[in-house]
Amino acid sequence: xxxxxGKKKGKSIERKNEATVISPELQFIMFAFxxxxxxxxxxxxxYKMPYSGTPLYFDxxxxxxxxxxxxxxxxxxxxxxxxxFFIIPRLITSNYWTYAVFYRVEVFIFVLMGxxxxxxxxxxxxxATWKMLLFYILAxxxxxxxxxxxxxxxxxxxxxLALYTFWLGKDKTSWVLIALGALTKIYPIFLAPILLIxxxxxxxxxxxxxxxxxxxxxxxxxxxxxxxxxxDSLWNLINYHSQRGIQLESVYSSFLLxxxxxxxxxxxxxxxxxxxxxxxxxxxxxxxxxxxxxVLLLVAAYGFTYKQxxxxxxxxxxxxxxxxxVTAVVLISGKVLSPQYLIWLIPFxxxxxxxxxxxxxxxxxxxxxxxxxxxxxxxxxxxxxxIDTVVILLxxxxxxxLLALMSAISLRQMKPSD
Length: 418
Fold this sequence. Notes:
418 residues, 2 domains, 17 helices, 3% strand, disordered N terminus
């Protein structure tokens, strides 16, 4: 018997505990207006980010429109579906400065889409709309202007939509969205086992097969043209990432930098693969074992998730925390941790309903503040391996580890019925 994940009697749950007389619809409009003020005046004029990926995206889009094939004719470090988001504003203009404006608008549309999905989840689940929308706004603000300058919000919102449609019982749509998210930025693929565990725990074995087929079909459909035209080109993308070393802001790096300052090891910095990386024998060894560390920690996270999921219950109040935990594990164990990667966590924070939700948000806000200090405020000092900036980086990464631990603790503290 099929269990519809998240289906409720009637259209939606009545909002008995709403803390305000303002309707949910009006709350959404108010928060959307606040979000626009944050995203444009604040992020553009006050809370600035001098480093941007937009020129790179403009260049990639221009090359594609001029007839060049990515991976074969020019190097591209991103999965192929990311190109769609680069090309859309380029179709409107060939002028870079106009492109930059339209690209920011495109990013804002996705940010606003995320706000709307959170609003719909709150309305359907009977949770306080204003609180969930506030969590989302605070997470965006904490992450800062880098949200507007990079493209990581696109896979983040695709992942949020995947969880929402999964809850609604629209399984195929959910798997398509996960596939497109993974084809934009690889990490959403690590959330797929959460959905499979739900199916397995509820003995929905046909949905396991259907989900895997949907996922692989979409991925192959997007990759096939590149594989047919030039198989080696996509293989170059895999080699590019496999050959990368320990990136300067990763968790591994923060401990190596401190060890260097304490005289326990000796490291140097090298600029390659589009970032500053740690160079030493120990760093090389950590880079080689990092995939195994990722697998080990993910297996532990999936095992924990399996034990927590109860058969016969939708448990949508938990799924955001599961996603937060798994994504944090990917960030902690990865050899690359660029500042924009923390954007991946934003959509999951409003979906945390355990007793530690406020603590998790506070940790993320602190992480966002420290990340802004690292880039752009003290980035040159970090490259110079100045002790104060190394400590800032270490604290930020310890907070990321704490975020993962608190996610697990929050799940353990929730009632079995949740």
